[in-house]
Design brief:
286 residues, globular, 11 helices, alpha+beta, four-stranded mixed β-sheet
Length: 286
Amino acid sequence: MHWRSDTGLRRRMLAALVLALAGYAVLLGPVFLLPLSAALVVCGLLITVLGGLVLSADRLAYLATKAVAIDREDHPELFETVDRLARQADMPRPPVAVIPSDEPNALSAGTGDRTVVCVTLGLLKTLEDDELEAVLAHEMAHLKNGDSSVMTVAGFPATLAFALLRTAVDNIDGKAFFLGYLGVAIYLAAVSLPLVAVTLPGTLALSRYREYAADRGAVAITGNPVALGTALGKLHGHETPETDARSMAAFNAFCIVPTRLGLPGTHPPVHKRIRRLRELAAEMEA
């Protein structure tokens, strides 16, 4: 199976971006009741923040998931697999990071030369070599498709809301100080909920389709749809402790399978993804 550009993905990326920008514009409407200079400052700040998010999405992934960048000496087999897959996909090798979580999952983020592929310790323990290779190829297909940048802009409100709540919950230890901190975090998260509602339709349409596109991309890179289907089945059926599920919730839409505590509806049903992979396998055999 050869790599080919996905026009359906491109259309959904454009639609998600338009809806996201429209949502930001609607919520910024009241700002234009301010003096023009103040309104321009607010809009400029938003554009700066969004631009910074897109250009620093890899850093956001490190911070949100507590991922640790690795060198070849740390995980030689993992590093070598990513290096080989990059050559097969005809793309630069992205940096690799490991997330200290028992939840078996993976994600990719960033654009251009600022990208990262993250895998959890649970993923490394759960999958066989060919299954891990297929999952890594899936994440690299996201980077090659360039859909992560649009997801960063469209999915920022939900990511912010989950990150704020997760940080608040992680810092509660029964002290009154942290209860006050929780109140502030919940307030800030609630402020972002209207924006989530506006941008959600386009985000979900893109996030669900991009998984199918990355599945096909992974098959184009590895030629092994069966391994990816087996890996998805294992990841979907794995029981994850709540603490680990919460650590990945903020980046739920970027993960290969949804986290238990993440925003629902961001991924197509796993059984449908596996069925499509089986259909691809049948086509390749024919």
